[in-house]
């Protein structure tokens, strides 16, 4: 396995996550897409960390995990409060703010 | 094996430590102080913490001015001139916003839901309202957000940049969803802000990983060195740098990353809108300035295309769309997008004059923004029985308000003139600074376009002033008639249930517009903002001098 394989895999995972965010309608699924993007980045960070032979990238990966956990707390709180109001978590139903 | 304690320069961290420490203590206050006294204690404590941060910045000032700057915690944080100016600005603006956030109307209502977790329209919400509950968690959240903002412009490596971005964003997502009135709009704005914000920070993180892969280090100084020695991986660097810039431009609200701005500004509780419009922009521009000036100047030739395109689009789109808005908060949101474009011309200029011009512009723009949203919060609908309802945000409802409430309308007009850049207001000095820096830096087409866009923007600012002072207040039915059908359209078009529709369309017939009486904090805050706008417009020289001596980045 060369560096390229890891880069391509991380790129594919990141693209799947980004596509999920942009195309899916359920807020929870959209949120899962964001998490996939973050984890693809973690793979990339660990790969580069190994490539450069130092730990900076791995440390950043740990920080990303912590931040992702904090994001889940805030995000689910918001999504759940909307779901309790409307009985729906679809981002299409949430359209009172018009542009 | 011996443990070597790292050397930490606590003194230079003090502004950040004071605010974040106070935020942590404030969470404890929430748990231990009795409910009745909680608001007073929290307000006094938060205000003292922010004032303490301002004092800490002042105490560090002369040392940093003579030494040029200090690196703290290895290379994680850089405390230099621009950092201190930005931290002082953020703490000052946060303190002023805190006054508006804390204020209550004469009926004892603040801007936040009595219990943000309750379902809108439920019995529990009504009970919480009658019990007079208050969501005092607002204060620690504001302090945490401010702490993140203080770190953001001081970051010296990409790890701290990412963490600071999240620390400032996460509390803002929550605060956005806590409005007392029009709660569905507020929750919706919170969800949009959260999903788009998380998406943008994931993009930025991927960019950080790519830049790290290229440079083999997260620190700005090492990356700047690495950009000067081309290797075979230039694509990594370029794509990574663009993605990091995209993350920062999202926070600034630059086109094409501005889609969240109008929705979030409209849905959030108005005092929070003022807070985040001013302080987030200051912090994000601080971080952007440092990245553009110290990390990627080696890529200037490649990235100029991106920055120029974004700047032009931001100015043009912000100005043009603001012209057709009918909602006051959306109009101010698009105006803030246009202002992001004006400030970007100073960033693109890439010279020392550009830095000090941007720093000054951020201060005056922040003061005017907080004041303007403060006035918007006070202008309310009143029904036939004299009960004060939500904010009167439709433009037609502002007609003739200048005759009945000359002070509030006068202050609002002053802020609008400052936005428009009329001479003798601070906005003029700020605009003159960034545009002349852009001309000196060789970006004269941007400056020219900026002047044209400002002229276009002046059109809708002046239109509001004319509406407030020179048009007659409509008869009682008129504003409701103008606004009501539209609200119904929105509710029906959304396919929501009738119960939801009534919640949204809380307008009853025969609404009039009035300025609500408050405990007075908001009036003090608006007065401070107006004073800043006038003083910095008439005597800008001392402040400009002070800033220009503090505008050199530590490389």
From TrEMBL, chain A:
It comes from the Bacteria. GO terms for cellular component: NADH dehydrogenase complex; plasma membrane. It is an enzyme of class 7 (translocase). GO terms for molecular function: NADH dehydrogenase (quinone) (non-electrogenic) activity; quinone binding. The chain crosses the membrane at residues 6-23, 28-48, 60-83. GO terms for biological process: ATP synthesis coupled electron transport. Keywords: Cell membrane, Membrane, NAD, Oxidoreductase, Quinone, Translocase, Transmembrane, Transmembrane helix, Transport. It catalyses: a quinone + NADH + 5 H(+)(in) = a quinol + NAD(+) + 4 H(+)(out). It is a multi-pass membrane protein. Its EC number is 7.1.1.-. It is found in: Cell membrane; Membrane. InterPro entries: NADH_UbQ_OxRdtase_chain4L/K, NUOK/Mnh_C1-like. Belongs to the complex I subunit 4L family. NDH-1 shuttles electrons from NADH, via FMN and iron-sulfur (Fe-S) centers, to quinones in the respiratory chain. The immediate electron acceptor for the enzyme in this species is believed to be a menaquinone. Couples the redox reaction to proton translocation (for every two electrons transferred, four hydrogen ions are translocated across the cytoplasmic membrane), and thus conserves the redox energy in a proton gradient. NDH-1 is composed of 14 different subunits. Subunits NuoA, H, J, K, L, M, N constitute the membrane sector of the complex. This is NADH-quinone oxidoreductase subunit K. It comes from Cellulomonas rhizosphaerae. The lineage of its organism: Bacteria, Bacillati, Actinomycetota, Actinomycetes, Micrococcales.
From TrEMBL, chain B:
It catalyses: a quinone + NADH + 5 H(+)(in) = a quinol + NAD(+) + 4 H(+)(out). One of its GO terms (biological process) is ATP synthesis coupled electron transport. It is a multi-pass membrane protein. The keyword RNA-binding does not apply. It is found in: Cell membrane; Endomembrane system; Membrane. InterPro entries: NADH-Q_OxRdtase_suN/2 (IPR010096), ND/Mrp_TM (IPR001750). Keywords: Cell membrane, Membrane, NAD, Oxidoreductase, Quinone, Translocase, Transmembrane, Transmembrane helix, Transport. Its EC number is 7.1.1.-. GO terms for cellular component: endomembrane system; plasma membrane. The keyword Transmembrane helix applies. Residues 156-454 form the NADH:quinone oxidoreductase/Mrp antiporter transmembrane domain. GO terms for molecular function: NADH dehydrogenase (quinone) (non-electrogenic) activity; NADH dehydrogenase (ubiquinone) activity; quinone binding. Belongs to the complex I subunit 2 family. NDH-1 is composed of 14 different subunits. Subunits NuoA, H, J, K, L, M, N constitute the membrane sector of the complex. NDH-1 shuttles electrons from NADH, via FMN and iron-sulfur (Fe-S) centers, to quinones in the respiratory chain. The immediate electron acceptor for the enzyme in this species is believed to be a menaquinone. Couples the redox reaction to proton translocation (for every two electrons transferred, four hydrogen ions are translocated across the cytoplasmic membrane), and thus conserves the redox energy in a proton gradient. This is NADH-quinone oxidoreductase subunit N. It comes from Cellulomonas rhizosphaerae.
């Amino acid at each position: 396995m060369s560096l390229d394989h890891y880069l391509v895999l991380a790129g594919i995972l990141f693209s799947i996550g980004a596509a999920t965010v942009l195309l899916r309608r359920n807020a929870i699924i959209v949120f899962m897409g964001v998490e996939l993007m973050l984890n693809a980045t973690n793979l990339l960070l660990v790969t580069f960390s190994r490539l450069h032979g130092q730990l900076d990238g791995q440390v950043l990966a740990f920080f990303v995990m912590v931040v992702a956990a904090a994001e889940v707390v805030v995000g689910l709180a918001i999504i759940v409060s909307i779901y309790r109001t409307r009985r729906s978590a679809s981002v299409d139903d949430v359209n009172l703010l018009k542009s | 094996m011996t443990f070597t304690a790292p050397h930490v320069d606590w003194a230079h961290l003090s502004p950040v430590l004071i605010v974040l420490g106070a935020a942590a203590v404030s969470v404890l206050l929430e748990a231990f102080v009795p409910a009745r006294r909680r608001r007073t204690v929290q307000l006094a404590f938060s205000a003292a913490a922010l004032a303490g941060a301002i004092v800490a910045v002042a105490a560090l000032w002369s040392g940093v001015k003579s030494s040029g700057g200090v690196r703290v915690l290895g290379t994680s944080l850089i405390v230099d001139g621009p950092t201190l100016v930005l931290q002082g600005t953020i703490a000052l603006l946060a303190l002023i916003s805190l006054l508006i956030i804390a204020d209550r109307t004469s009926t004892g209502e603040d801007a936040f839901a009595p219990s943000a977790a309750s379902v809108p329209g439920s019995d529990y919400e009504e009970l919480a309202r009658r019990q007079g509950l208050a969501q005092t968690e607002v204060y620690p959240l504001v302090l945490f957000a401010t702490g993140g903002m203080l770190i953001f412009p001081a970051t010296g490596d990409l790890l701290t940049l990412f963490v600071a971005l999240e620390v400032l964003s996460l509390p803002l997502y929550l605060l956005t969803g806590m409005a007392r009135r029009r709660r569905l709009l507020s929750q919706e704005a919170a969800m949009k802000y959260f999903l788009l914000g998380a998406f943008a920070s994931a993009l930025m993180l991927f960019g950080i990983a790519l830049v790290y892969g290229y440079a083999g280090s997260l620190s700005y100084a090492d990356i700047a060195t690495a950009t000067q020695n081309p290797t075979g991986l230039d694509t990594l660097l370029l794509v990574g740098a663009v993605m990091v810039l995209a993350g920062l431009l999202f926070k600034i609200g630059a086109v094409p990353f501005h889609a969240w701005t109008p929705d979030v500004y409209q849905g959030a509780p108005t005092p929070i809108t003022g807070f985040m419009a001013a302080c987030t922009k200051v912090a994000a521009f601080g971080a952007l300035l440092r990245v553009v000036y110290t990390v990627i100047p080696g890529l200037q030739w490649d990235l100029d295309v991106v920055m120029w395109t974004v700047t032009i689009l931001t100015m043009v789109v912000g100005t043009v769309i603001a012209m057709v808005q009918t909602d006051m908060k959306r109009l101010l949101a698009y105006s803030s997008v246009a202002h992001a474009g004006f400030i970007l011309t100073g960033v693109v200029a890439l010279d020392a004059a550009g830095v000090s011009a941007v720093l000054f512009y951020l201060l005056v723009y922040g003061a005017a923004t907080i004041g303007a949203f403060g006035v918007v919060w006070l202008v309310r609908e009143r029904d036939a029985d004299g009960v004060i309802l939500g904010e009167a945000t439709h433009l037609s409802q502002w007609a003739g308000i200048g005759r009945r409430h000359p002070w509030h309308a006068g202050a609002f007009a002053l802020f609008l003139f400052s936005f428009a850049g009329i001479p003798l207001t601070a906005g003029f000095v700020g605009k003159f600074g960034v545009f002349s820096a852009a001309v000196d830096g060789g970006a004269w087409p941007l400056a020219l376009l900026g002047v044209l866009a400002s002229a276009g923007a002046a059109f809708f600012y002046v239109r509001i002033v004319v509406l407030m002072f020179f048009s007659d207040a409509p008869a009682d039915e008129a504003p409701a008639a103008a606004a009501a059908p539209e609200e119904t359209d929105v509710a029906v078009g959304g396919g929501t249930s009738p119960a939801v529709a009534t919640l949204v369309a809380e307008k009853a017939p025969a609404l009039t517009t009035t300025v609500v009486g408050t405990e007075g904090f908001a009036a003090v805050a608006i007065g401070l903002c107006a004073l800043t706008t006038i003083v910095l417009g008439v005597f800008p020289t001392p402040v400009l001098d002070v800033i220009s001596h503090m505008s050199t980045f530590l490389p």
